């Protein structure tokens, strides 16, 4: 019997899938804070091809996100949380989750307010609610935590859930054991509750079709997944929906409904069996939006879901490939019983959405290109004509706004080859590994210099 053990934390999952997937009122408030705090001029990103000054492209006015609708927590969009929710905002400044703690940028400067490794930051009144994931030995331990906006008065709303990924298989891969423990995932605050995905103890053994061998494999797992919720002020955890699978399901909340995917892994094939659903906030009225979830069927729906978000009754999915062979992820759309590809997401930068249903999408033109040295060895992979665009509502690209353009963007090394887009208070931000940029007038202006991720002091 061979054994493969990999321990995963909820934060680590996002980093692995997106390479560096690094959400609200940075906008005017943060700029005012920074103007008072320092007299140094703002820096404009130049190295990657963003023009230092440029005439603003023709854009439509960006209204504020409406109350309710796609908004969750403190005016955070489902697309922002799908990107990991590493950036949020209270009334005083920006909150950023990095390895080694949660940092706050306000009139006092940039400082660490909490030592938790966190994701899915949700500001809820005078509280900050998030998922913490910390290493304890060779495993991760996840909790749902609430603190005040200075990091104090720490309360655990749901605690000590193990994070790990264990696969056992026999020599001919006809029998596998898959135990993936997510801890807590995709925490989203909505109308007084924190909604999240958690492990349960509903183990089983099933026959699953293996496309590699055109036969079945017997799969055993000890834990399945459920959608749960807990009151933001604390209380009993309530299980809403069971049977999300033994893999990596995803969750979003928009327009007063839960949107989610299931995920069943065999350990023998990279793409899990996946279906897409929507249900009421109490778990009732569960509707299958798309997918054949029959585990032993050759035509079962299979997908690797990086994240999902919903807007105007449409479910959008960022989908990956199995081995990272392709330089881009795929933007998929679930609508009217169909599942269709809208286009590629350049360099796995996930698409997001604003409160008006407009998508913020990193697109490119042409094929992948390479630079070679004198010996013919590839030294750089790059794309030309890469753009961050804002579509019309519903993803209409016929009249899109160009927010940023890169004449050349390298897959490895460029700051903007790995970033995440956040839409907050009608403004657009790019969160890279090192900085937060405000994107406007065709340029990216640094508004926050992030702490060194390797420095936990």
Task: Give a short summary of the structure.
With 457 residues, the chain is mainly beta.
Layout of strands and helices, then pairs:
Blueprint: E1 2-6, H1 10-18, H2 26-37, E2 71-72, E3 76-77, H3 78-82, E4 87-89, E5 94-98, E6 101-106, E7 109-114, E8 118-124, E9 127-136, E10 139-148, E11 155-169, E12 175-182, E13 184-190, E14 193-200, E15 204-210, E16 215-221, E17 224-231, E18 238-242, E19 250-254, E20 257-261, E21 276-280, E22 287-290, E23 305-311, E24 314-319, E25 329-335, E26 338-345, E27 352-353, E28 359-364, E29 369-372, E30 378-392, E31 396-410, E32 420-424, E33 427-431, E34 435-440, E35 443-449
Describe this structure in words.
The structure is a single chain. The chain is mainly beta and 457 residues long. It has a single domain (2-449), classed as Peptidase/esterase 'gauge' domain (Methylamine Dehydrogenase, Chain H, 7 Propeller). It is built from 3 helices and 35 strands. Strands 1, 8, 9, 10, 11, 12, 15 and 16 form an 8-stranded mixed β-sheet that branches. β33 (427-431) and β34 (435-440) form a beta hairpin.
